[in-house]
Amino acid sequence: MVLLTFHSLALSSASDIGQGNEEGQDEDLGRTVDRGGKKKAPVEVNKVLTRSRKLNIFMVMAPSINANNGSSQPQLTLSNGTMLKLKPSRIFKTAVENPTVSPGRPSFGPRHITGICFDDRGDQLLTAAEDETFRLYNCKSGKHLKTLQSKKYGIDLPRFTHKSTAIIHASTKEDDGIRYHSLHDNKYLSYFKGHKGRVISLEVSPVDDGFMSGSLDKTVRLWDLRAPNCRGLLTLPAPPVIAYDASGLVFAVAVNHYSRILLYDQANYDKAPFLVITLEDLTLTLISYPPRPIYMTSLSFSSNGKYLLVGCSGDAHYILDAFGGHLIAKLEGHVGLERRSVAAALTIQPDKGCSGEEVSWTPDSKFIVGGSLDGKVLVWDVQDLQVPQGPMNLKTTPRQIYPFIAHDGHPGISRCVKFNPRHGMMATAGAELAFWLPDTAPESEEVARDLLKRKAPA
Question: What is the pTM of this model?
Fold first, then answer.
C-alpha cells in the first residue's frame, strides 16, 4: 500500500491575537469559566472579531520507505484522477452485530457504526457501534484484529490517543464519564467524570496528552490524560461541538440554536473568544420560509489551518474562512443523515442522527469526502477556494459546490466517512464497514491501445 506522510516543516507561534470592536454583540451568548476552581462572571462572546495569529503550517508529501529493503515506494499524490478511481477493496459485513427479530415485534432496522477513528500512523482503524462493541482493524492487511465489548457503559466517539494501544471514548449509559481504555490489556486505565449529560463531541489534541469534550449539559471541559479532573470549563447556552486546529493552539466551539462558532486561544481559554462566526445561509429561504435551522454536527480545520469545515445533519455542509469568519462555500449533492432511512419523514426541528462523522477532509485538504442517506460516497474538489475580502457580510450568498464524483459501492447508508491520515485509503461505515483504495489498474481502453501500438508494424 502506498503511504502518505505529512511533515510539519515550519510552525510559528500563535501570537498577536488582535482585539476587535464590540459592535453586534449577542447578549444571550455568555459563558462562565472555571479555571483552577475560580469562577468568573459571564462575559459577552462577541467582543473579538478578528483573527491575526501568526501561524503557518507547511505540509509536504514524502514517499514511504519499505522497511524490508529500504527501497522507496512510489509517492501517491491525491488528484482528481486518484479520487475518481477509489473503489471498495474490502467490505466487513459483520462489523455490527444485529439482534434476532422475533415475529410480531417491530424492527427498527439494522444497527449502525456511529464512530470511526484512525491512529496517528494510519495503521489501525477503530469503530464504535450501536451493538456496544468497538472493533479494531489493520489498515495495511485489511484484517479484523479484535472485538471488545462495553455492555455496561456503552461506547461512542472512539478516539485514539497518541499511543496506538490506548483510546478514550464517551459512554452511552450508566454515567456520562469518559473512559481511558487499553486495547492491549482490555482494561480501563482511568475515568474522567464531571459531565452531567451525555458527551456528544470528543477530540484529542494533535500535539500533546490534552483532550476536550462537549456535552448535552452545555459545557466544554478540557482534560489531560495524566489527571482525572478537568483543567478547564466553559459554560455555553446550548450543547457544543468542538475541534482543535492542526497546531493544537486554537480550538473551535460550535453552538447550535444560536448558529455561532467561537474560536479560542488554547493558552487563554478563560478569556473571550478571539473570533465569533455567525453561520447564516440565505439560500435556505428559497427552500422553505421560515428556513429550517442549520444543525451543526462536526467541526474540522483544514491541515493548513485556513479553513473550517462545518458538517451538518441536513442536505448541506459549509466551509468557513478560519481567519476572517467569511462563509466561503456550501457543499451540496448529498442526502442529510439525520434520519434512520430515506423512508422516514423529516421532523420540524433538525437533529444529529446517530453519527456526526459524515464528512471530513482528505489529509492534504484538497478534497472533502462525505456520506449520504442514499448510500453514495461523495467527493468535493475544494482546491480553488476563494476567500472574500473585507468585513463579514451575513447577506452574502455562498458559492455552491457539488461533488465531482458520487461513488457507489458502500453497502447501505454511509454514515461515517474518513480518509486515512497516512495511507492512500478511505473508510466508510454504516451497517457495514468498507475500506476503499484507488484502483491503479489501467483502463481497458488504455490496455487495448497499448497492445495495438505494440502490434503495429515499425
Answer: 0.80
